């Protein structure tokens, strides 16, 4: 143990001191400033009996700032009497033995050559005023440690002449100058005789009564050290010692000795390992949670003493450092016997009756309580600090002075966190439902985010030592969603959701866990990476196999325990969500083409028709969705011709029947003249029975509150066969056959009757409209037999085509006399004939007018006179 001593000054300074002291009175008072505890004793080569002897410090001391995290604080408090005893005894032992040495050189020799190695300190008994301890050790002289040759030679000569020195019984007082010269304690030391010749060793054993001085002063020193304010401590020992060498009495010597402790010389808290820990319900009529622990404490000291039972309060930090600590429980140790240089096993029991409101209440200007902070640090493997408030002694035989000495001492102890790792074993979503934003939600607002409702299932692993009944009654979470390890979204469940849990015992070597279920409602999903989300949508629509989304979440759970209800926040969780794609084997949405029927025109303008329709379609996923508003463009060859609009519908897994959709057909407004031409061509091909297709593509206003989502989806246009217009089947009539039915392909002209004598024809027409009458305003048609013209109709008077099947008026026919076609008609008189027709037709519905062409094939025509 390094100390500040005059012996470490340069030789020139020593020489000056010797010259000055030569004029002093030999019997004057001697002041010793040698180290309290010498590091080692080495034999001198010139002495036949000398040999090298290494001594070690009795106390391994370090500053409070270096206290390790796994320390047992209560044991330190139990050791204060013994530490005090060692400091008092060892600080003055060497000094009182050499108080007789009057000359400067011999005094310096004694300071540097003397060494005392304590080998054992045991507690003999507790007294009403202090402790009685037994000290055992070895005293020796080592001249090789003396730096100056002349001092070494004179000292060896003097000690060889004196051979042995006897110190009479004395009382030693130890003071602390920086604390008002406070009396730290008093030691009564019996008469001791030692051999002071170089290389000689003297075994020493004696009993000493130690009495603490100012209890309040000792507590102040302890608190300053524990709180890191004590950087160094100077101790001063004083005694009046009567010395004798053989038959020669050397008189009474006033001995004074000082030592400075600093840096790593301060005592440190011992290391400990927890070998057993168990949480349970409180016993013996108490309420709350009890804890049992066994600790093995490392003991490197030659100390032997019996430690009585000790009870302490357990405190934790409050919201602010200036706030008083919060008491959360108590702990008590069983009586133990500490053996010298032997690790100590300590059994500790603790109890938490209930959690105080100040521990669970949210701190000002914060979203966390002291409990949240403490548990969060612990569960993430970060160190926290607990405080041990000392002390009570349940044993009535314990002297009162021990409680007076240790009361109101609060020891900060680093509390090592535990990284729970995969505490949540499973984290999954089922019964998922998506909610698109409302039409009038402001972009970037909370209402504009898509939302998810689902049943969350969480398996929370419990440590084996957790044997306390727990019930999870609420959950909330913040989750990041990943695809191929790339984050694309955040799921925020900020409000508590009701939950229920059940304990499941583990198997196959796994510990128990809590199975928690909670139905969440409308948790916002924020898209953070448009590119990755685009990949997800593309895989969802066109993928042939399931895609896997990864969810990493911080889950908050509200638990009901024997000590009350509280929340455990930010439990790390990770899970996967397998998503079945809409397209199977690369077929995309085309394999689930909708069936449209119940067309009703609800509005018209000169350029547009607004229709309502009932749609039957299949949702191939297991997810449902709520759609307040959805607008999608209808395109042909990249040209926008109209929009389909869905409002306030719920899409469920499987068949969805009679879903209301509004269609606005307005090619001119959307794409001007090119749009009008393409729209007319599409209608012409469609009513003629050609295979046509439509492309559905989102746009920035598909979901007005989420323009970015519409933009992303616009990169994934979906082309579908133009749906056959038929009245959708009810669920009771559905036969599950989704294959196209050719018989339902549009046939505007169902049949015809030709009258030869009157040169006229009547057509049976099928209107695709279910409740609105359309008008034919212009007709220029030619009929063919095979490829040969048979007759021509030119008619410009409007006539009505009501919903369903109807007959046209008699239309004048200009026969192609002499043609192959006309001859075939004459031959079929009284029967029927398959004819084809090509026509240009003007159509009017309300204010809307359009010119289309029509090609009819295999029209069954009856031939009459």
Automatic annotation (TrEMBL):
InterPro entries per the UniProt record, alphabetical: Ig_Tag1-like_4th, Ig_Tag1-like_5th, Tag1, Tag1_C
Comp. bias intervals (Polar residues): 1-29
Domain Tag1-like fifth Ig-like, residue spans: 742-853
Protein name per the record: Pre-rrna processing protein
Keyword terms: Membrane, Transmembrane, Transmembrane helix
Ranges for region Disordered: 1-72, 722-746
Organism listed in the record: Delitschia confertaspora ATCC 74209
Record-annotated membrane-spanning stretches: 80-102
Cellular component aspect of the GO annotation: fungal-type vacuole membrane
Domain Tag1-like fourth Ig-like positions: 593-710
Extent of Low complexity compositional bias: 52-69
Occurrences of domain Tag1 C-terminal (ranges): 466-580
């Amino acid at each position: 143990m390094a100390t500040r001593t005059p012996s470490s000054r340069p030789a020139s300074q020593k020489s000056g001191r010797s010259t000055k002291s030569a004029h002093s009175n030999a019997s004057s008072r001697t002041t010793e400033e040698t180290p309290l505890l010498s590091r080692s004793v080495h034999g001198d080569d010139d002495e036949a009996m000398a040999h090298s002897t290494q001594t070690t410090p009795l106390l391994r001391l370090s500053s409070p700032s270096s206290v390790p995290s796994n320390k047992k604080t209560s044991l330190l408090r139990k050791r204060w009497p013994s530490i005090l005893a060692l400091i008092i005894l060892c600080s003055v032992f060497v000094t009182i033995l050499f108080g007789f040495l009057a000359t400067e050189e011999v005094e310096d020799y004694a300071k540097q050559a003397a060494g005392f190695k304590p080998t054992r300190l045991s507690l003999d008994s507790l007294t009403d005023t202090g402790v009685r301890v037994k000290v055992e050790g070895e005293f020796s002289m080592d001249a090789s440690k003396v730096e100056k040759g002349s001092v070494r030679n004179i000292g060896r000569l003097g000690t060889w002449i004196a051979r042995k020195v006897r110190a009479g019984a004395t009382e030693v007082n130890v003071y602390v100058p920086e604390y008002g010269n406070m009396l730290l304690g008093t030691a009564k030391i019996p008469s001791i005789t030692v051999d002071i010749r170089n290389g000689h060793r003297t075994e020493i054993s004696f009993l000493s009564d130690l009495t603490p001085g100012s209890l309040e002063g000792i507590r102040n020193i302890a608190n300053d050290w524990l709180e890191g304010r004590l950087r160094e401590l100077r101790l001063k020992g004083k005694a009046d010692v009567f010395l004798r060498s053989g038959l020669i009495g050397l008189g009474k010597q006033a001995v004074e000795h000082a030592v400075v402790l600093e840096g790593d010389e301060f005592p440190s808290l011992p290391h400990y390992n927890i070998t057993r820990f168990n949480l349970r319900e409180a016993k013996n009529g108490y309420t709350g949670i009890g804890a049992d622990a066994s600790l093995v404490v490392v003991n490197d000291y030659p100390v032997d003493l019996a430690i009585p039972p000790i009870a302490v309060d357990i405190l934790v930090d409050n919201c602010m450092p200036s706030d008083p600590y919060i008491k959360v429980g108590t702990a008590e140790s069983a009586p133990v016997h500490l053996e010298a240089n032997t690790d100590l096993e300590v059994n500790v029991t603790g109890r938490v009756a209930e959690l105080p409101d100040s521990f669970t209440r949210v701190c000002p200007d914060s979203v966390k309580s002291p409990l949240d902070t403490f548990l969060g640090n612990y569960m993430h493997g970060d160190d926290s600090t607990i405080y041990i408030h000392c002390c009570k002694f349940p044993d009535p035989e314990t002297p009162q002075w021990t409680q007076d000495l240790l009361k109101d001492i609060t020891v900060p102890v680093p509390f090592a966190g535990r990284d729970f790792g995969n505490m949540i074993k499973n984290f999954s979503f089922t019964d998922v439902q998506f909610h698109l934003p409302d039409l009038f939600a402001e972009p970037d607002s909370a209402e504009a985010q898509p939302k998810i409702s689902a049943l969350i299932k969480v398996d929370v692993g419990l440590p084996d030592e957790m044997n306390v009944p727990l019930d999870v009654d609420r959950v909330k979470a913040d989750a990041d969603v990943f695809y191929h390890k790339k984050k694309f979204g955040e799921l925020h469940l900020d409000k508590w959701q009701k939950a229920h849990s059940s304990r499941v015992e583990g198997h196959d070597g796994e510990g128990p866990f809590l199975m928690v279920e909670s139905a969440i409602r409308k948790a916002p999903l924020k898209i953070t990476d448009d590119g990755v989300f685009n990949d997800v949508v593309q895989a969802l629509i066109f993928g042939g196999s399931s895609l896997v989304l990864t969810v990493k979440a911080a889950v908050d759970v509200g638990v009901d325990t024997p000590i009350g209800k509280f929340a455990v926040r930010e439990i790390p969780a990770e899970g996967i969500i397998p998503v079945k794609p809409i397209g199977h084997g690369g077929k995309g949405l085309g394999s689930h083409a909708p069936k449209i029927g119940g067309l009703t025109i609800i509005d018209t303008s000169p350029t547009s028709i607004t229709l309502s329709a009932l749609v039957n379609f299949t949702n191939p996923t297991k997810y449902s969705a709520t759609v307040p508003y959805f607008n999608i463009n209808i395109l042909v060859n990249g040209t926008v011709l109209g929009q389909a609009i869905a409002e306030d519908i719920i899409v469920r897994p499987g068949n969805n029947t009679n879903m209301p959709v509004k269609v606005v057909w307005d090619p001119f407004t959307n794409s001007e003249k090119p749009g009008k031409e393409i729209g007319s061509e599409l209608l012409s091909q469609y009513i003629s029975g050609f295979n046509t297709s439509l492309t559905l593509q989102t746009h920035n206003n598909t979901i007005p509150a989420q323009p970015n989502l519409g933009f992303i989806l616009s990169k994934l246009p979906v082309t579908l066969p133009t749906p056959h217009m038929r009245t959708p089947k009810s669920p009771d009539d559905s036969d599950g056959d989704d294959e196209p039915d050719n018989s339902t392909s549009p046939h505007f002209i169902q049949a015809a009757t030709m009258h030869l004598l009157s040169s006229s024809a009547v057509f049976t027409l099928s209107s695709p409209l279910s409740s609105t009458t359309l008008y034919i305003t212009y007709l220029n048609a030619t009929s063919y037999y095979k490829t040969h013209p048979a007759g021509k109709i030119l008619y410009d008077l409007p006539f009505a085509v009501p919903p369903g099947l109807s007959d046209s008026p008699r239309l004048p026919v200009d026969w192609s006399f002499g043609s192959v076609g006309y001859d075939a008609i004459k031959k079929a008189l009284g029967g029927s004939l398959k004819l084809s027709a090509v026509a240009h037709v003007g159509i009017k519905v309300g204010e809307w007018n359009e010119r289309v062409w029509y090609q009819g094939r295999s029209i069954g025509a009856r031939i009459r006179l």
